[in-house]
């Protein structure tokens, strides 16, 4: 059987004046895959993600998301993706329920769907008692899990996670990854950026960017074999040294 690809890019490039932020990147992400997108600050990760989400028009190259062209079919792309930023995108001055209902409405769910999804989400997160609390009163880890659950409330086929575990403790990060695995088991494609090298080990495959270019792409095990490294951190350090 031929592989089903959720994301396909070919020589995708973005320039800002004379600066090339993303330089002819080419890769495919399989449906249901957890794909790690790594790189230091300024490597081009966020620019690439914004192009794939339809928020930034490429300078050149090609890409499809869930089979839709990112140039010509941006609205279809946006309907089929979820997005979670490092800031979690939650409104601190709204309650938990109000945040869920607000975003569910933006994603186009009907009133009945919003009611059902709100109850389901609160039950799943064991936050029924906190539904009426302001988001600002929640612990960071709870905000993180709530934000992820809202990002997939409309059952997208692909979810983009931009540094989703920044600032939380290792136990909470592990619990968050349980949510990611659960979504992947349902067939959701996960495209995640992270600067935690231990989290790179949780991905099916990893792309490492340096100065806008993809310098390595494979499974964690194969990358460690290729670079004769004991950990993904060692792989990353070797690529960083090669740059300098």
From TrEMBL:
<dbReference type="GO" id="GO:0016887">
    <property type="term" value="F:ATP hydrolysis activity"/>
</dbReference>
<dbReference type="GO" id="GO:0016020">
    <property type="term" value="C:membrane"/>
</dbReference>
<keyword id="KW-0547">Nucleotide-binding</keyword>
<dbReference type="InterPro" id="IPR003439">
    <property type="entry name" value="ABC_transporter-like_ATP-bd"/>
</dbReference>
<dbReference type="Pfam" id="PF00005">
    <property type="entry name" value="ABC_tran"/>
</dbReference>
<feature type="domain" description="ABC transporter">
    <location>
        <begin position="7"/>
        <end position="236"/>
    </location>
</feature>
<keyword id="KW-1133">Transmembrane helix</keyword>
<keyword id="KW-0812">Transmembrane</keyword>
<keyword id="KW-0813">Transport</keyword>
<dbReference type="GO" id="GO:0005524">
    <property type="term" value="F:ATP binding"/>
</dbReference>
<keyword id="KW-0472">Membrane</keyword>
<dbReference type="InterPro" id="IPR003593">
    <property type="entry name" value="AAA+_ATPase"/>
</dbReference>
<protein>
    <recommendedName>
        <fullName>ABC transporter domain-containing protein</fullName>
    </recommendedName>
</protein>
<keyword id="KW-0067">ATP-binding</keyword>
<dbReference type="InterPro" id="IPR027417">
    <property type="entry name" value="P-loop_NTPase"/>
</dbReference>
